[in-house]
Amino acid sequence: MARVLTPRAEDFPRWYQDLIAKAKLADNGPVRGTMVIRPAGYAIWERMQAEMDNRIKAAGAENAYFPLFIPEGHLKREAEHVEGFSPELAVVTHGGGKQLAEPVVVRPTSETVIGEFMAKWVDSYRDLPLLLNQWANVVRWELRPRIFLRTSEFLWQEGHTAHTTREDARAYARRILHEAYEDLMVNVLAIPVQVGLKTARERFAGATATYTLEGMMGDGKALQLGTSHELGQNFGRAFDISYTSAEGGREYAWTTSWGTSTRMLGGLIMCHGDDDGLRVPPKLAPVQAYVMVVKDGEGVGEAAARLHDALRDAGVRVALDDRTDTPFGRRAVDAELRGYPVRVEIGPRDLAAGNAVVVRRTDGSKSPVPVADVVGVVRAALDADQQALHDQALARRQARTREVGTLAEAIEAAATGWARVPWSVVGAKGEAEANAEGVTVRCLIRADGSVPDSEDEPDLVAVLSRAY
Fold first, then answer.
1. Over residues 10-32, mean pLDDT
2. Ranges for the Aminoacyl-transfer RNA synthetases class-II family profile domain (predicted)?
3. What's the CATH fold of domain 12-272?
4. Partners of 210 in the beta sheet?
């Protein structure tokens, strides 16, 4: 396999690019910074999307769709927001062969356009909370693109809500953070995320608080996998999202926004991938079991088809590979690269012995199993390997996280992993010093690991690392 992928220990970024190409997950698009997501990659994104959509709807939000183009003036109405995005904006100045009267921005995010319609739709406290989500593409002009991690156009969901009180807005931003995002990432993607509060320096433009979910990748760096923001009344005032209260007064709404994107695909690759390719957690995998005919033989194809149907009927997402005109070794390598959790291989000799061979992608084990027992063995393997991937990632994070007492020690530790250091010894000045060394404060947490409400709380812990 070393001839297929660059070893991770030798060159992690090259390994990442090799895997994406060899597993046929994505390609670079024709415009620099864009990407084409191939069917194998898009199938994983569809599973992420479906799982996330179910959780968002369970939290009460409804899906809608808003325009791709936003009048430039809309962004300027919230000065801090446009300032935060100015370097990344793609601006359209001509359309239909003519110069536009007002330039339009290709959405980098939709707070401003959704804010306009919230103002239109909200009149009374009875209209609140208004809980909206959209699945869309956004454009943020990226100077240093990397497929899935940083591209000029990417796919995501963005939620936007309006509430009568700050407390209700905060509770909802936290609900999405934990019940939708953390639950998906930990229990489906098998990525043990550190949930915390961003510092003022790292906060989303126009937000009053930004909550984040940080995962440790295979090389010890951090990746921000999702964020949820309290926006205070900033957008309520800028777009006149106001309502008549129960007491008859006119009040501005408190709003939130929150998003996850195809960056989760990059995180999945870098957290779980190995030198043989991708390893997809079974709960996420579009194909959980891959039934393979090793070579032609009397009754082999029929036996493989029966195994396929039995697994399907047992609720396993299964595919059948009976392409015996393609060498088995090549097909097996492709299956390894794509990270199918379990392979069920059957050939003439296996069938003669009444067996099939069950191969588990997580640990590489191969076991002959009586055909009658295959379904039970596969289901047990899927459950065990879902947990195993999470546990391996958690063990790596624990092994590569150092408790330190000074900023200098934190910067040193960030060369190979994460550092936990008292926020009181870092502060805004120390954060700037760390940034100059390529190290960022990924988040702030309380001593008990919970998420603080403010960076001004006493005894907070800062998590520092290098990041993607």
1. 97
2. 32-281
3. BirA Bifunctional Protein; domain 2 (3.30.930)
4. 229
